[in-house]
């Protein structure tokens, strides 16, 4: 049996508002997430035990024994009442701890992949519950489609109809701790943000960028304080004459630029290359016809 494979696309938060905080300390969010064509790749084949191998240019520092991929496999096997047996390979293309959901996307892809390998057909609600138990971002990554994120990131609703557009992603080559960014954000926050008011859809990328410019990433200032290179990335992206909007994604350090089309984004990414930076430009993995 040939190994089965599953793509794990990068998640990009086009805005991220902190709207409150629960009694247990978790922050309440409002965000619009989309997925890019770039991502990691998971492969799996039958085996006598559960094992993970990691390859790819961004594999440094990742553990093959303590990894969200393995936790996803064990959670799915437990829910299905079977032993977790599979040889899994993770080809890591996305930078680690970078605000584009790499680990969450890998966990979500693992669930989809092992459902195929183990020939499982769980109720979608049950699979979503397993995903939510692995981390707040795993649920949105499981859907792999644009979505509005609420709650702690686990409450999903339909995104506005999106036009065709391009994305540039750039990371300065430094991991950023999400818990540290949230802790630091309290020093910059004078209050909580209101949920964004978005239309039902946008006719083109320019209109979308205009509306999103009125939103923000409430973690950006805190992330820059911890990793000043983020500011350099934002300035470099925004300097491209075709960039419609530049902003940090998630808790950083990856930043994105919105462009009118994928070709413009790919050309901008080629101009943006720097030593030690991870840079990509192209299309989103799903959008409404535009």
- Summed over residues and divided by their number, the pLDDT gives a mean of 95
CATH class of the largest domain: Alpha Beta
- Which class do the helix and strand fractions yield? alpha+beta
Please count the helical segments. 9
Q: What is the multimeric organization of the chains shown?
A: single chain
**Termini, distance in Å?**
40 Å
* Known CATH architecture of the largest domain: 2-Layer Sandwich
CATH topology of the largest domain: Ribosomal Protein S5, domain 2
Topology:
Layout: E1 4-21, E2 27-45, E3 50-55, H1 68-80, E4 86-91, H2 102-117, H3 124-134, H4 138-143, E5 147-150, E6 155-158, E7 166-171, H5 178-188, H6 205-212, H7 220-226, H8 229-238, E8 245-248, E9 255-259, H9 262-272, E10 278-283
Parallel strand pairs: 3-4
Antiparallel strand pairs: 1-2, 2-4, 2-5, 5-6, 7-9, 7-10, 8-9
Helix pairs in contact: 1-2, 1-3, 5-7
Explain how this protein is built.
The strands form 2 sheets. Strands 1, 2, 3, 4, 5 and 6 form a 6-stranded mixed beta sheet that branches. A 4-stranded antiparallel beta sheet has the order 8-9-7-10, with helices on both faces. By secondary structure, the chain is α+β, with helices and mostly antiparallel strands. The mean pLDDT is 95. It has 2 domains: 4-157, Ribosomal Protein S5, domain 2 (2-Layer Sandwich), CATH 3.30.230; 160-283, 2-Layer Sandwich (Alpha-Beta Plaits). It is globular. Helix 1 (68-80) packs parallel to helix 2 (102-117), helix 1 runs antiparallel to helix 3 and helix 5 crosses helix 7. It has 9 helices and 10 strands. The chain has helices at residues 68-80, 102-117, 124-134, 138-143, 178-188, 205-212, 220-226, 229-238, 262-272; strands at residues 4-21, 27-45, 50-55, 86-91, 147-150, 155-158, 166-171, 245-248, 255-259, 278-283.
């Amino acid at each position: 049996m040939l190994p089965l494979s599953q793509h794990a696309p990068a998640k990009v938060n086009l805005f991220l508002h902190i709207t409150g905080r629960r009694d247990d300390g978790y922050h309440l969010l409002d965000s619009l997430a989309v997925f890019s064509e770039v991502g990691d790749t998971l492969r799996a084949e039958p085996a006598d035990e559960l094992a993970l191998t990691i390859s790819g240019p961004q594999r440094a520092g990742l553990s093959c024994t303590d990894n969200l991929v393995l936790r996803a496999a064990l959670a799915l096997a437990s829910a299905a009442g079977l032993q977790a047996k599979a040889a899994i390979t993770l080809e890591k293309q996305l930078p680690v701890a970078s605000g584009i959901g790499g680990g969450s996307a890998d966990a979500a892809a693992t669930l989809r992949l092992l459902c195929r390998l183990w020939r499982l057909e769980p109720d979608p609600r049950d699979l979503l519950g397993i995903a939510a138990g692995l981390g707040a971002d795993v649920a949105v990554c499981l859907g792999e489609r644009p979505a509005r994120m609420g709650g702690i990131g686990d409450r999903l609703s339909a995104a506005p109809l999106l036009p065709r557009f391009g994305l540039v992603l750039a990371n300065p080559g430094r991991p950023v701790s999400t818990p540290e960014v949230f802790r630091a954000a309290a020093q910059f926050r004078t209050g909580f943000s209101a949920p964004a008011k978005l239309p039902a859809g946008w006719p083109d990328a320019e209109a979308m960028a205009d509306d999103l410019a009125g939103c923000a990433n409430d973690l950006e200032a805190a992330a820059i304080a911890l990793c000043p290179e983020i500011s350099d990335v934002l300035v470099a992206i925004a300097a491209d004459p075709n960039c419609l909007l530049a902003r940090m994604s998630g808790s950083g350090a990856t930043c994105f630029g919105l462009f009118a089309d994928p070709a413009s984004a790919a050309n901008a990414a080629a101009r943006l290359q720097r030593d030690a930076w991870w840079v990509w430009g192209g299309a989103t993995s799903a959008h409404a016809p535009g």
